[in-house]
Specification:
Blueprint (H helix, E strand, L loop, with lengths): L1 E4 L6 E4 L9 H14 L1 E4 L6 H9 L20 E5 L26 E8 L7 E5 H6 L3 H7 L3 E4 L33 E4 L1 E3 L6 E3 L6 E4 L4 H15 L5 E4 L6 E5 L3 E5 L8 E8 L6
Parallel strand pairs: 2-3
Antiparallel strand pairs: 1-2, 3-13, 4-15, 5-13, 5-15, 6-12, 6-14, 7-8, 7-11, 9-10
Bound molecules: fe (ii) ion.
The site of fe (ii) ion has 4 residues, from loops.
Length: 281
């Protein structure tokens, strides 16, 4: 197994590994170690079927069904992330900086994404390293987040913070909305510890964090704005250009990601699986 970093602070391409083959214990262990270190792993030209994608995902944590997003008909653990060529001028799934489902009491530990049909260019994905983001915070912002909780709400899926009903979303991903349960406030530490490495990461979510604990939304806003600007500085990011058969495995505890919506007129289909995490601490 060969690891080649793709950027200065996050992401590595893994070479010489066939993910569809049997996942020996030492390979699984090596991949977990590499993910803990690089936070996103990339692979090219893999022949993953649904069974092998689920098996691969299970090597990083318990396979997890995600809420609010409809899975494949016979595969509760697989979400088809699809935008059809005819769906133009819409917002896409994941088209803002976020980590996945941070409003859950136990947010996912990470995900595996397989490129099935990808445009020849466009539709890249970005990731940002939240460990470096935390370590490089200016002192005044560090003082704000250290030892403080942040409130997360499943805003897009709830009632109180629901997006405007005229927001044009993909027809190809079925997302359940209007669930009052998604309005529930869940408090997680604004700085969490990664269970695999003990490293501390900033854990705030531009989509789901509504405020800092002990502060109003209004008072939190300018602080969160500064924290988010810092969290996604280009120096902390990497960008992946998809090819058919490419696989990305990312850590959802210590990264943010962003799906770039710049491929109107072209069909893009990805298969996504998710593994469980723990209650952030
Ligand atoms: Fe996402």
């Amino acid at each position: 197994m060969d690891l080649e970093p793709v950027a200065g602070t996050i992401g590595a391409e893994v070479k010489g590994v066939d993910l569809a083959g049997p996942l020996r214990d030492d390979l699984a262990e090596g991949l977990r170690k590499a993910l803990g270190e690089h936070l996103v792993l990339f692979f090219r030209d893999q022949q993953l079927d649904v069974a092998s994608q689920k098996r691969l995902t299970g090597a990083f944590g318990e396979l997890m069904a995600v809420p609010y997003v409809e899975p494949l008909a016979d595969e509760p653990y697989i979400v088809a992330v699809l935008k059809e060529a005819g769906e133009t001028g819409i917002s896409v799934f994941g088209g803002a900086w976020h980590s996945d489902f941070s409003f859950l009491p136990r947010p996912p530990g990470g995900s595996v994404l397989l490129g099935v049909e990808v445009p020849p260019f466009g539709g890249d994905t970005l990731w940002a390293n939240q460990i470096i983001a935390y370590e490089t915070l200016p002192d005044d912002l560090k003082a704000v987040v250290d030892g403080r909780g942040a409130v997360h709400v499943g805003a897009p899926y709830g009632v109180k913070h629901a997006p405007a009903s005229d927001l044009r979303l993909s027809r190809s991903i079925h997302i359940q909305r209007g669930d009052p349960e998604a309005d529930r406030e869940v408090v997680h530490p604004a700085v969490r510890t990664h269970p695999w490495t003990g490293r501390k990461a900033l854990f705030l979510n531009p989509i789901y964090t509504t405020r800092l604990e002990g502060m109003s939304a209004e008072d939190s806003r300018p602080l969160l704005q500064r924290l988010y600007e810092h969290a996604v500085r280009p120096e902390f990011t990497c960008r992946f250009r998809w090819t058919p058969g490419a696989v990305a495995i990312w850590d959802n505890r210590a990264t943010l990601h962003y799906a770039i919506n710049d491929y109107d007129g072209q069909r893009r289909l990805m298969y996504r699986t998710t593994f469980a995490g723990e209650e952030p601490y």
